[in-house]
Amino acid sequence: xxxxxxxxxxxxxxxxxxxxxxxxxxxxxxxxxxxxxxxxxxxxxxxxxxxxxxxxxxxxxxxxxxxxxxxxxxxxxxxxxxxxxxxxxxxxxxxxxxxxxxxxxxxxxxxxxxxxxxxxxxxxxxxxxxxxxxxxxxxxxxxxxxxxxxxxxxxxxxxxxxxxxxxxxxxxxxxxxxxxxxxxxxxxxxxxxxxxxxxxxxxxxxxxxxxxx
Length: 213
What we know:
The protein is 34% helix and 16% strand. It is an alpha/beta fold. It has a single domain (2-203), classed as Rossmann fold (3-Layer(aba) Sandwich), CATH 3.40.50. Strands 3-2-4-1-5-6 form a 6-stranded mixed β-sheet, sandwiched between helices. Strand 2, helix 3 and strand 3 form a beta-alpha-beta unit. Helix 1 (26-41) runs parallel beside helix 3 and helix 5 crosses helix 6. The chain starts with a strand and ends in a 14-residue tail after the last strand.
């Protein structure tokens, strides 16, 4: 059994992410198409039967490109969203610095919320529950493997820490998670573990962009 985590394609710079509903830029659409085509060409390796996705626009637009080529319908849900940054979601950086100076993901305490948003501990708990529920449903054959999840950098980063058995806080170092990168999780005799990280072969010859949340 395998779970493939994918970060959405490139979105517009200069704005706060989180629960922003700003969509992909042209390069992000192109990245998503390249990934979808690669998944089809390498179907012996991936064999996707189930697609899950965050319901935020940048993830939805990435997933739509994959759906159209794989001929599968995705399930969209709030549980795979990035951390809820409340009133800062989608706000231009310059405006955010004026209205909420010094408020960033890694400046919060674990029990301090973004204005109108969630606290880091609740974000962590949400992602861990979603992942553990999915693993249980796969093991009980309630969900068909292999599963592709289109989500966000912060979500994937949490899962790295969970699978490595390491403590996570919003101040923990961030793993390399580029746009449309693939991160493979497999079920082995020793449990679930990450077996491939930040895979980018589908974008060979294409600038993948910066690592942003």
